[in-house]
């Protein structure tokens, strides 16, 4: 083999090892890949990029890749690798050509697609007679968990799932203009959001945030634009008392603190001590001194009853709204990832609601697109708690008025998210 073919073969074996491990262990691709790179420091930046981007592309297009005809497993694997390179328009041409050769395919570089129909046509130049239905790009149970969608809406959602999401950041303690200038000095171009003045996108640039002064000084936080919607729906005011009941590592707690101009108090709770320790590190880095972390370690809420102006319940969920960013989860999760969550979500919402003072706000959110986890939970809660009423919201990306706000990934190049805001009478 030529040197290029040897490299291509080595990449193929490594990616196959990782892909197989992820499917068998059902661990996230991010976790498996991070562990692999920690143990194999021989890989340079280019190697890591080829391995990482091809691995995630395999999951992004797995619904179609399973349909490719092949004479044997080895040929199928190289055809799947070549198909990923074609659909993603990867730039490592010698490696892609070697994969095509090993897959018994004619040289074919393709052109960037604008629709899934065009993407399917690209594959059919190699695999004539094979159908590539768009619906196959997600498991069939997914559609049964969504509210009714027409064919156009389904196709638009699938197209967003098959494109890489940008890196969204939230600016703290300085203006967006100053942040953009500092990033430009560091060699990165940033685009301001058309919706939130403190949000910027770095697109698909490769960046190590830990080496960036703005990030190390707590002036930038990674937070998807859809996630930022939740903080703006909360709309906390300086001096208020808020409880972030399911805070995780604290991204939304930090956003609330920023919106409150670091005045007031935020209690952040989670059942995982490790998450709260990470929150405390991030808060210290951001010089945010109004967040107090409290472990939620029993059925009893760790805060006083009717003590808060606002309570945020960003409930644990199936995370189907993040399938664009985590395409492996489409194929690792079963339908039970959705169907088993609503009782837990309703229980957390009920317990957390007791902490809202009269006239206060209760916000419920998930990064799920499934009806059962979203409107189903909210309606069940309202039926049992008439003292709470839904408030009308303006969708930040579409301008429509709604009481049940769903952010679809295609609306502003984001993840998917659901949020409602309730008022305690």
Automatic annotation (TrEMBL):
GO biological process, one term: methylation
Active-site positions on this chain: 367
Pfam families assigned to the protein according to its UniProt record, in alphabetical order: Methyltr_RsmB-F (PF01189), RsmF-B_ferredox (PF22458)
Residues where S-adenosyl-L-methionine binds: 270, 314
A molecular-function term among this protein's GO annotations: methyltransferase activity
SAM-dependent MTase RsmB/NOP-type domain sequence ranges: 157-425
Family matches, as PROSITE patterns: SAM_MT_RSMB_NOP
InterPro entries: MeTrfase_RsmB-F_NOP2_cat, MeTrfase_RsmB-F_NOP2_dom, RCMT, RsmB-like_ferredoxin, SAM-dependent_MTases_sf
Origin: domain of life: Bacteria
Keywords assigned by UniProt, alphabetized: Methyltransferase, RNA-binding, S-adenosyl-L-methionine, Transferase
Protein family membership: Belongs to the class I-like SAM-binding methyltransferase superfamily. RsmB/NOP family.
Protein name: RsmB/NOP family class I SAM-dependent RNA methyltransferase
Native source organism of the sequence: Shewanella yunxiaonensis
